[in-house]
Write a structure and sequence with these properties.
One of its GO terms (molecular function) is transcription cis-regulatory region binding. The protein has 13 helices and twelve strands. It has 332 residues and is of the alpha/beta class.
């Protein structure tokens, strides 16, 4: 049976380097990591990870708490997390919280009972007691896509304010002045940031922010669809900025059923640039987030946190990009 010494010899590296690869340390050159993994495969080497985990009190398992994996945005993030986890020898337990604080608490407790090494968390609330508890316990934790207020923890997210601001500026440049905003709960910080970006773009253009054009608290495509059917005949916007692509698709469906043309009568702009955007009819203009990259960075950051709990917290903000498709046009 091959040993770690055989792997080190075959890869031409030290035993310590093989150990770093096995233990998922991020600071190993990619070529070196590939040599070690190739040597392990050729020798059919299978380390006793369970025994090592018991000795080190590590399980090489992390929890990923997301609102809904059926949302393509979180599916892409999950893929990024999983890709990075596999690379470093970690496994993932995925929990869908449905943005329900009670479900979050249930899953956090369950994952702690399973002795996971850390958590990646897309929280449902700006003020989250689970995050506070984990922080007080110095439990390895990285927030993704969303953050909480008043608690210093590692976070990886896109620039929600700037992305929304630039998206609405684009709609204004097309001549739109009556621009509706569709968003999720204002308890989610990313919704607040995107609404703030929307309002800043309007104010800079001298366009009043009208409460009747703002609809928040939406949880699903179906809710966006039903609210838009009721909302449009009263508000009559010429453009809709949706805080995610799911809400945008719901809005498009409602507008079409009301006999309106997209973008002839109403332009629609989403946020995220998920697979929904490219397959929508018409294809949806959207503010793109680097979803898979965010997942990979969150997992890499979590591994660093697991290795060194005293490390300074970091807030990693990634830029967005406006992707223009056929759902937006100049206001006629």
């Amino acid at each position: 049976m091959p040993t770690i010494y055989d792997v080190a010899k075959a890869a031409g590296v030290s035993i310590a380097t093989v150990s770093r690869v096995l233990n998922g340390y991020p600071f190993v050159a990619e070529k070196t990591r590939e040599k070690v993994l190739r040597a392990m495969q050729e020798l059919n080497y299978s380390p006793n990870l369970l025994a090592a985990a018991l000795m080190k009190k590590n399980t090489y398992t992390v929890g990923l708490l997301i609102p809904d994996i059926s949302n393509p945005f979180f599916a892409e993030i999950t893929r990024g997390v999983e890709d990075a986890a596999n690379k470093f020898g970690f496994n993932i337990i995925i929990c869908n919280t449905d943005n329900d604080p009670e479900k979050e608490t249930k899953y956090v407790n369950l994952l702690l009972q399973k002795s996971v090494d850390g958590l990646i968390f897309a929280t449902s609330e700006i003020a989250n007691q689970n995050i506070l508890m984990l922080k007080e316990r110095q439990f390895p934790l990285v927030l993704i896509a969303r953050e909480v207020e008043g608690i210093e923890v590692d976070v990886v997210l896109a620039d929600n304010f700037q992305g929304a601001y630039e998206g609405v500026k684009y709609l204004i440049s097309l001549g739109h002045h009556r621009i509706a905003f569709l968003g999720e709960s204002l308890n989610i910080k990313s919704t607040r940031e995107r609404q703030a970006g929307y309002e800043k773009a309007l104010q800079e253009a001298g366009i009043p922010v009208e409460a009747e054009l703002i609809v928040t608290g939406l949880k699903s495509l179906e809710e966006a669809y039903h609210r838009m059917r009721l909302f449009y005949p009263k508000a009559r916007p010429t453009a809709v900025f949706a805080a995610n692509d799911v809400l945008a698709i719901g809005a498009i469906r409602a507008l079409k059923e009301l006999g309106l043309s997209i973008p002839g009568d109403v332009s629609v702009l989403g946020f995220d640039d998920t697979i929904f955007a490219s397959i929508a009819e018409p294809p949806l203009s959207s503010v793109a987030q680097p979803m898979r990259q965010m997942g990979k960075m969150a997992m890499t950051r979590l591994i660093s946190r697991i290795r060194n709990k005293e490390e300074k917290c970091r807030r990693l903000v990634l830029p967005t990009k406006l992707v223009i498709r056929a759902s937006t046009k100049a206001c006629s």
